[in-house]
Amino acid sequence: MTNRHAIDLLEARRSLYALLAQCYLHPPDWPALATLRSIPDITAAVPKTPDALEHLQVEYESVFGQNAYPYESLYVDHDLMLNTAAAHRVARLYQDCGFAVDAPVGAPDHLGVELRLMAHLLTIESAALRDNNPALLTWSRAQQYRCLVHHLAYWAPVFLRTVERVADYLLYRLLAQVTLELILNDLEQSASLPPWIPLDHQPDSATARREKIDAKTHRRTVSQSVLSATDEANAVHDEHAGGASFVWADDDGERDLNQIVRCLVIPDIAGMFISRHDISGLGRRLGIRLPRRERSQMMRDLFDAAARFDLLPALLDSLDELFATEFWRLAVLTERYPAWTPYARQWLSRLDRSRDMARELRMQFLAYHARHEG
Hints:
By secondary structure, the chain is mainly alpha-helical. It has helices at residues 3-25, 30-36, 50-66, 73-76, 85-96, 111-130, 134-166, 170-190, 205-225, 229-234, 257-265, 267-270, 276-285, 295-308, 312-336, 341-373.
């Protein structure tokens, strides 16, 4: 491949990363839509009238402001807050790459900013090719690998699957699919980098040590947190003072709704991001209308209403089905993108445990009622 051809391909990837970043960072406008029409798979879904654009802007807020939150920390940390440890790791990567966050976001680990970093690094790679600078070429590719392997691959596929579930407009579902394919295709390419590009290359050894420690800490936290979601759901301790106590109890103890909800709303435990849209959908299947509230409160409301109307087994069956569907969709991705398999295994294991929890809760609920009705 000639340098000219390689630079053209790099520019095409850079432009796509930059365009997708814009789509996640800002509501749509006419210039962005005009550019989107140049992508063959998306052209037909791009609105062409002012009314359609206005509806799409409302959809942007519904998807990214109320349902699928585009921040890495919400998928890999347990705090369900912005600017946690994950955000600090991303900020450190930006600093090492000489990249400044110039978008109005709540935290640096926003997907749009991470995609902009990839565009920034591709610009540097193009310059290195033009200038015949092998050291800069190695550095830029190693930083792309670092962004993909230590960040985007961990959480972006799960976030993008959430977007596909909650978006009403085809355009955002297609954007999620294009973003997923771009990230996982690049991950596949990074897995077979030429041997002269060190896969663990970092700007300095201290940063490398920090990231290795971060990765070990993350794996240990995950393993401890999901050793038994059912055990956590059975815990008697109420970690929220004055929180709801969800009881089908006898002298053997009571089941704490707050602990069950925690297992369901933390993606790093549940294996997926259960959005407000998902919770409302679970309610609709049972004929239960839920007010729009914070996710944890909506999930508590759903369990309370299901208990009042003797619908708990049906709710737990629906949760099991939701986890099973997500399991299947993520498993399919590993067939298309084998390089993502190590990340998928973690999410699939969490989904498996969530299914075990839902089935165990159902069996225990039915056993309790059988004892008391008998």
